Amino acid sequence: MGKQGSPKSPRPGSLSLDASSGLKEYQLRWNEMLQNGDPSLGRRVSGGEYNWDKPIFVKGFKNDSVKYNASKGGSAGKKHLWWLLRHLRSIIFTFMLMGFLLLLDSLIFSLFDPTFLENSPNPSKAYDAKGRNAAYDDQEKSPVLYSRLLHMASLSLAEKDPEEDVSKFWKEQFPQASTWKPCADKNAKRAGTVNNHTGFVLVSANGGLNQQRVAVCNAVAVASLLNATLVIPKFLYSNVWKDPSQFSDIYQEETFMNTLKDDINIIKELPSHLRSLDLEAIGSLVTDADLAKEATPDEYIKNILPILLRNGIVHFLGFGNRLGFDPLPSDLQKLRCKCNFHALKFVPKIQKTGSLLVKRIRKHDSARSMLDKQLLGNFISSIPSGEQATIASPSKYLALHLRFEVDMVAYSMCDFGGGENETRELQAYREEHFPLLLERLKKMKPLSPAELRKMGRCPLTPEEAALVLAGLRFSRRTYIYLAGSQIYGGKSRMRPIISLYPNIVTKEDLLSPTELAPFKNFSSQLAALDFIACAASDVFAMTDSGSQLSSLVSGFRTYYGGGNAPTLRPSKKRLAAILQENSTIKWPSFENRVRKMVEEGQRVHIRGFGRSIYRQPRCKECMCKHQ
């Protein structure tokens, strides 16, 4: 090998290790050529006659580069230019290859980066919030509170075999707590009540579908307690729900009356001679302000029965949670159960569409359990001829009730990482919809958002729900039915959960506009479809144990599930404590603590008497107690 700067051309394959000064000289020449604008450097390289079988001249290029020396004048410059033109294709190819490898590396990293969500492809029918909650949809940025945990969750899900779902929560962890004998006997009679008539009970129930369902069953129990005749309850129109539906639009009236005919008298309309009475003037109108929340039977006997005996009629207006669970005679508890689980059947229109919804989720036509039969009635095998599932999906699915609507978010007074825009939006919503809440807060010492979260008073965000599911080791391919109304924040809020679980669908995804048309502008009837899909699911995951839908669905699954209908109840308080360690906690530790938290919610409790097994908060969910 010659000295550096030798006029001799280097031999192919030779390589000088002492190349620092020659490389500097070459770089100077290269920069000079770029500055002079050599047109050959800007020429687009085409395929031409390039032979891919030839060796790449990276080695020769490096060899020659160390041999050039500017001191050799024009001859060396010509050789340099000749060599550059000869190897131009190799140089460009080398840079292109390096650029491709860098791009590929960035792409692979992005696939496991939870912040890379906006450009990631979604399934054809994945959750799309278009048209939903547009006023509160922040398109600029997705608020992410736990980016580190999301990244670890993404890596953990990617490492698992996508064909194998290792989560043990597809099965009921405590089946003995879900296989109890039903406390309501649909053929049982409550002796001594039907023939004793003290007057008529009217109920005008407020709220949405689930609040009204609770009110109806409470009305049945109260009418029985007072030995009164119950008029089919009316449903109040709400400015929040904006649904004019009445009892007969949602439930089968004849089934309701026939199922309870041996327990109480039920009529469809008030007798004509009583319709013209001014109930408020005669003192027969009872509002929620006149009756304590979760009132006891003694309060009804003391305060309501005298009105009924004096006027022959009493009208409960609102009737939201106005009958407690303790203490209540066992026969009234069982009657309330009988109403909830046997007497209230959805009308055929809802059952038929609910059946279609469940079949499209499961992609088969046969009923799977007693749950299907109770929910869908005669429609468990009905599906239009030739109908195909809208989405290719596995037969089992998880239903998630994500209680993160704007009213829930605003009422909580919590901070969800949306910055000043979020603060202004939620405050404006409170001023319009919750003025009494703001007045009450003025008289109290306010709690900080951090304190509220620590106390478990903040609804779980889609991001937090996704972390719980990942912590329970549900695979990335888990098929999730999302129940609930419009998610606050729309698509931007949903991005974290979709990044981990892309197979998320709603009834709007699975049913066509034509199939949904009969339910348009009837929010309670749409909620009935969610009720059916959640109750029939293989696993039901709630995010707020105080939700009426979650409580009623959980009770229905316990009552008819036969120990094979698990419900996941994360504790918001315990989860907040876990998430507080976001910056330090290891993923295995996170998984372990989340699993223990959910198992605690499924723990079996033994009552001190009767050796009966029950699980809190079943008494509220099932609207009955074990005796």
Automatic annotation (TrEMBL):
Record has Transmembrane helix as a keyword: yes
Keywords: Carbohydrate metabolism, Fucose metabolism, Glycoprotein, Glycosyltransferase, Membrane, Transferase, Transmembrane, Transmembrane helix
One GO process term, biological-process aspect: fucose metabolic process
Membrane topology value: Single-pass membrane protein
A GO molecular-function descriptor: glycosyltransferase activity
Positions of transmembrane segments: 88-112
Compartments reported by the entry: Membrane
One Pfam family recorded for the sequence: O-FucT
Record InterPro entries: FucosylTrfase_pln, GDP-Fuc_O-FucTrfase, GT106_glycosyltransferase
GO cellular component, one term: membrane
Top-rank taxon, per record: Eukaryota
Sequence similarity: Belongs to the glycosyltransferase GT106 family.
Protein name: O-fucosyltransferase family protein
Lineage of producing organism: Eukaryota, Viridiplantae, Streptophyta, Embryophyta, Tracheophyta
